[in-house]
TrEMBL record:
Official protein name in the record: Plastocyanin-like domain-containing protein
Entry keywords, A to Z: Metal-binding
GO molecular function list: copper ion binding; oxidoreductase activity
Species name: Friedmanniomyces endolithicus
Domain Plastocyanin-like: residue ranges: 14-103, 188-329
InterPro entries documented for this protein: Cu-oxidase_2nd, Cu-oxidase_C, Cu-oxidase_fam, Cu_oxidase_Cu_BS, Cupredoxin
């Protein structure tokens, strides 16, 4: 959209700021209902999506259909997707704003690190007889308290359409404590006192295929063996804000979200929210963490090495990452790794034998 190019203080090679770049325009017809597939494809900012004067009906989170419910604003952490219904109930001549706002900066109590110059993106929605040469003049009626809430909607609101009940007693339970501390030169994220660091020349999945059972500590490998059900109790002690935690390969059950120590209670225990990214609350203080409790089912069909990490680009860059090694025996005996992968590893090994590859961060 339009951005005040004078505000660009650190030009990035290859990117130019175009003054008065214009806005995106969407055309709708009065009386119809539209499905919007929203994704936050950003690096850090928690987006709050709304359409002036409209309620939006959420029908899916991270592609998992849920029982529809209405909101003023849709909260999207990095990587989160929500499908919403927008009913175009306006007059044929109406024009309204669609908004995605980052709210106020985290430095003054908000949810994101925006610089305050242009924290709200807008696009125009034009009904069929609207004058598309002028921009809308509508204002947002979303309460500021909803913009300032750094959390997904309550788990009690998000009930999957297809019922699945996770085991009350999982096969394996693991606590993950996230902290933010110095390694001597840099402040990094630590998972149970270990900050993640990848070795580009040593893929964990290949190790698992070869039957290796032990890994360097900095790979942050959690071997859950043949557990049929795994629960992670994740505590955020970092006091750096909210983390959109993402699990690969599964729709995880989100059993609880809160602050302090988990009291064991589960929301919608017979059919909890399932999705693959969930906002983990900020720590209240150094001794009072935020928490989420997630759980996933496992079988030989889900055998792999699955990342579980924060989706904020520079948090995962700073080590907020673990590898979940699932069903290693099935990997060793049943998984077919295409020969092109082995060839790629050999080629990479040969090239890195003669060229230094700078690994400036965790390696992810
Ligand atoms: Cu994070």
């Amino acid at each position: 959209m339009n951005y005040p190019c004078d505000a660009v203080t650190t030009p990035v090679s290859g990117f130019n700021c175009t003054p008065n770049a214009g806005i995106s325009k969407f055309n709708v017809t009065s009386g119809l209902t539209y499905r919007l597939r929203l994704i936050n494809s950003g690096a850090e900012g928690m987006q709050k999506f709304s359409i002036d004067g409209a309620k939006l009906t959420v029908i899916a989170n991270d592609f998992v259909p849920i029982q529809p419910y209405d909101v003023d604003v849709v909260t999207l952490g990095i990587g989160q997707r929500s499908d919403v219904l927008f009913k175009a109930t306006g007059k044929p001549t109406d024009a309204v704003w669609m908004r995605s706002t980052l709210g106020t900066s985290a430095f003054v109590g908000g949810c994101t690190l925006n610089d305050g110059i242009s924290p709200e993106a807008v696009a125009a929605i034009y009904y069929q007889n609207a004058n598309t040469s002028i921009v809308p003049t509508t204002v947002s009626t979303v309460p500021s308290s909803e913009i300032e809430t750094c959390a997904n909607d309550p788990l009690s609101s998000t009930v999957p359409s297809f019922k699945m009940m996770p085991p009350v007693k999982p096969h394996t339970e693991q606590i993950i404590n996230i902290t933010y501390q110095s390694n001597g030169t840099h402040d990094l994220f630590y998972m149970n006192n270990s900050t993640f660091k990848a070795d580009y020349n040593d893929p964990v999945l290949l190790d698992a295929k070869l039957g290796h059972k032990t890994f360097p500590a900095e790979y942050n490998v959690y071997d859950f063996g043949a557990s049929s059900s795994v629960r992670l109790i994740v505590y955020n002690y970092a006091q750096t804000g909210v983390h959109p935690m993402h699990l690969h390969g599964h729709n995880m059950y989100v059993l609880a979200v809160g602050t302090g120590l988990w009291d064991g209670s589960v929301v919608n225990a017979n059919n909890p929210q399932r999705r693959d990214v969930q906002l983990l609350p900020n720590a209240v203080s150094a001794t009072e963490p935020g928490h989420i409790v997630i759980q996933f089912d496992s079988s030989p069909s889900t055998a792999s090495v699955w990342p579980f990490h924060c989706h904020i680009a520079w948090h995962v860059s700073a080590g907020l990452y673990i590898n979940i090694l699932e069903q290693p025996e099935a990997i060793k005996h049943d998984m077919q790794i295409p020969s092109i992968m082995a060839q790629t590893c050999r080629d990479w090994s040969a090239w890195t034998g003669k060229n230094v590859v700078p690994e400036i961060d965790s390696g992810l």
